[in-house]
Amino acid sequence: MLAGVPANNCFSIAGHKWDCEIQGSVRWIIVGDSLTTVSSSTGKVPYMTARPATGDTNSPSRDSAITSRTWIRVGLAMFAVGFGTNLFAPMLKVYRDQDGISEASVTAMFGIYAAGLVPALLIFGPISDHYGRRAVVRPALILVAVASGILAAGSEAPEWVLYVGRWIMGFGVGMAMSSGSAWIKQLSVDRPSAGPRRATIVLSAGFGGGPLIAAQFAQFVPAPQVTPYLLHIALVLVTVPLVWGVPETQFPAAGRVTRPPLVPRIALTGRFFWAVAAWAPWVFGTATVAFTSIPGFVTDNVAYPIAYLGLISGVGMFSGVFIQPVAAQLASRGWLPLSVVGLGAASVGLLVGGIAVELGSALLVVPAAIILGCSYGIMMVSGLREVEIIAEPHELGALIGVFYTLTYTGFAVPFVLAVLGPFVGEVFGIGPVRGFIACLAFGVVVCLVSTVPVARAASRAVAHPRHEI
Questions:
Q1: Which of 172, 81, 106 is nearest to 309 (CA)?
Q2: Separation between Cα atoms, residue 139 and residue 92, nearest integer Å
Q3: 291/314 Cα distance (integer angstroms)
Q4: 39 pLDDT exceeds 90?
Q5: What is the dihedral of CA 267, 269, 271, 272, to 10 degrees?
Q6: For the chain, percent helix, then strand, then coil, each to nearest 5?
């Protein structure tokens, strides 16, 4: 809704009054529950200062300034959250070699993270929609730091402590992801359409930076089971004061609040299923295979295996970061549905990964990780774009939570492969390595077959989702 500037510079948005100061020639656009300013001459946001008017007791912040760079502070916090998420990937080698933990156990530790993340996504997305983004992101930062502390202590504790630390890490990340992504979107007053891509970029940078940097600490610094987690704790402590005073964008509703459903009704529509849910598990399914499963078959051929695992993780996730502007360009030109492009890249990456395992080539794993990382980035952008289009402002955090929940089911793939690969190899008499390759080949077939219904659904005219309920 576009509104001209009245003489008294006072606005009411979603039941909340705002006193607004204008600098330069601007026009005001209401986007969801947030106020956006756009220069009438350039079309860009020069600066916007908005603060709750006197007497609006529902607003948690009484002196808030939102500029085109405010979102960066939340972005840094999301980077810190993502940093701790995949930090565990290169640690799998440490726990296998130095602590004698089995392959199935370490991949289960990696995957149990999703068991904490999924309920947190579903619970705290709606909570942030109704009680504010700060009410969720602030405690989430504290919780992920606590989780890293538990994981650091796990080196001198029973094995189950590592499972607990990973579960708590997942829960804290789940709290932060849906609410933080929605917060970044609403703080992107200069380019509201760029909100989903910004959220994905900062998270992906954390996902890649965590294992890349932590692996070097684990490989070359004493106490490899401890120092990477201490690094993460220090990073979180630096970002906490930066995000603590960021203005709220989703104000608590006045009066009695009806408890929102964990899964918005919009998530049950045909459009959401075909545009998002049908392929969402591939987002992290391919990414985790790239940096946890495939490299494990070639680490005996490299001099510094832990550093190598961190490098592969970083290469894969940063590929997902750098491909996103390209993906946005493809989407704007209507070249192909982004989800179809992502599935195609996944099939190619799995094929290259299978060849790398067959040849035992540590070098060939690098392009496999790059291609699978690109698949991750393309599909993540595609899903968040669709969610932003489908969701109402009051359910944005909840629907982002549903999307992330679906994507994180892919974290179970390395554990499934660790169990299924040897089983397939034994059944067909081809050995565990080729059993794993056969599983990758099956994944290639599934990706290729999936492109057909996804592309068909994208080409059909789908009724507005709110009419399908």
A1: 106
A2: 28
A3: 9
A4: no
A5: 20
A6: 70, 5, 25
Q: What are phi and psi of 55, to 5 degrees?
A: 100, -5
Question: Which stretch of DSSP H or E encloses residue 18?
Answer: strand 16-21
Predicted confidence band of residue 268 (pLDDT cuts 50, 70, 90): confident
CB atoms within 10 A of CB 299: 18
State both tokens at 90: 């290169």
Q: Using an 8 Å Cβ cutoff, are 91 and 113 in contact? A: no
65 - beta bridge partners? 49
Q: Compute the C-alpha angle 195/197/201, nearest 5°.
A: 120
Mean pLDDT along residues 64-81: 86
Q: For residue 346, give the amino acid letter.
A: A
Tell me the two tokens of residue 337: 């549905």
Helix (H) or strand (E) holding 414: helix 413-428
Q: How many CA atoms lie within 13 A of 205 on its CB side?
A: 14
Of residues 449, 398, 129, the one with CA closest to residue 272: 398
Per DSSP, the residues of 239-282 read HHHHHHTPPPSSPPPSS--PPPPSS-GGGGSHHHIIIIITTTTH
What's the token pair of residue 317?
Answer: 């996730």
Query: CA–CA separation, 348 vs 366, rounded Å?
Result: 13
pTM (two decimals): 0.74
pLDDT for the residue numbered 433: 95
Task: Supply the pLDDT for residue 142.
Answer: 95
Alpha-carbon span 81 to 78, nearest angstrom:
5
Instruction: Give the residue from 34, 36, 28, 32 showing the smallest Cα distance to 3.
Output: 28
Alpha helix locations (H) across 254-364?
Answer: 270-272, 282-288, 305-333, 338-359
pLDDT digits (tens, 9 = 90+) for 363-414: 999 999 999 999 998 998 888 777 877 787 777 777 877 888 898 888 888 8
Q: Give per-residue pLDDT as tens, 282-338.
A: 998 998 899 889 998 998 889 999 999 999 999 998 998 889 888 877 777 766 678
Listed in order, strand segments (DSSP E) in 157-223 are none
Collect all residues with Cβ–Cβ distance below 8 Å to 20 and sequence separation of at least 6.
9, 10, 11, 28, 35, 48, 49, 50
Q: Which residues contact 97 (CB under 8 A, 6 or more apart)?
A: none
What residues have CB less than 8 Å from 36, skipping those under 6 apart? 28, 29, 30, 45, 48, 189, 192
Coil vs helix vs strand at 379: helix
For residue 176, the Cα-to-chain-centroid distance in whole angstroms is 10
